[in-house]
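chain below, 491 aa
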Amino acid sequence: MSGRIMPCSPKEIGSLFLFEKLSPEQLGRLCSEGRVELFDPGPVYTEGDPATCFFVMIEGTVVLSRQVGGDDVEVTRASQRGVYAGAMQAYLGDRVPQVYNNSMRVTEPTRFFVLPADIFADVMTEWFPMAVHLLEGLFFGAKNAQATIGQRERLLALGSLSAGLTHELNNPAAAAVRATATLRERIAKMRHKLAVIAEGPFSRDALANLIEIQERTAERVAKAPVLSPLETTDREDLLTDWLEDHDIGQAWQVAPTFVQAGLDVDWLEQVAAAVDEEILAGAVGWLNYTIETELLMNEIEDSTTRISHLVDAAKQYSQLDRAPYRVVDVHELLDSTLLMLSGKIGAGIEVVKEYDRTLPPVPAYPAELNQVWTNLIDNAVSAINGAGGTGTLTVRTGLDHERLLVEFRDTGPGVPPEIKDRIFDPFFTTKPVGEGTGLGLDISWRIVVNKHHGALRVESVPGDTRFQVLLPLTADPELSGSPEEQAEETV
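prediction:
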């Protein structure tokens, strides 16, 4: 949008704080190479367009805004003379994209001193060479520091996840090792018991009955019901009494194993009826070893299955074997991240999942979204731990005005209102020194907003803090660039 050209007065622009130290010759050059324009209420320039001009307000009111997802969000409003916007990085040349980083509009007739970007770059370099060098160093130094610390943030997160995964893998692996060693011992005892039975005066029919009972007992183990503690105690007492009444030794040790396998007194009566009385004790001992081996094999199966699930979750989390940009089910990503972070979440925090399973898959960079989930869950856990270590983390999905919503809600102390507008700024952190870099939320913002063209927002009161990620349901044509091009947006 163009304004109406008006006379430029060196005296008037010299009264603006940006130019108050310039010489009359410099002010004359600005007026000759720049211009004064009067804009009616409405837009002046739009975010993302080529940055062609540097604007300094002489009088009026300006509003600056940023695009957040599909929304235009106001970031500042000013009526102070001399405020400036536009091509403020023109002096950096083609080393950075020369586009407007925000949109500007005016709410009343407003006059600006307007300087073309190339002229602004020339006068900055010619009149303030030292300042330009300092600004260049500050800009590129901060950018490099942000990239370096961002990599460090990722490494710290990876280290934390690795430690958690190692801990989670260690438990089932140790259980499988213990169960395997015990299983070896039980099988050795079974061989010994088999030798004793083979040497005894038992008929072929009696042995056949014993083997048939063994098979049916193994089947009962697989179908054992889940009992309450009270039911378990009552059944153990009944079985112990029955075993002692039939002169079977170590009844107090055998009874819990039989109960765990789902056996009861009626079953033992069937065993007693199927074998001769003189071999009942040996038969019960043989069945005890059978049950123990079945239970141990179940334990080994459960442990190795747990390890397999953890490995699958790690693969799903890292997305090492997947395309960088594809259609994904966010629930799979959330579940893998929660599993990877389960060791860090701890027993004092209850995790509640409120998933809308009717949601469609969405096009996304899944590895990047997993990083967002990690950062937001880590923040929620830190908030709850800071408030006593017990609380609830609720992960909810749903639809929000034709966008997919993923919400992380914690019962921590909340985000103070005075810092709510700063939490997404680079390097801003409320954690103690050494515990946070202040880039977790900044990286999350860049991934969600810049890379996925979604939105990231926060709502917080004490005891109820909600970070909400909003993702488009359909692919954005601008996301069709190479992974390398897209990756640059998050640096």
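The chain has three domains: 4-138, 200-303, 323-472. The chain is about 50% helix and 20% strand.
thats it, cya
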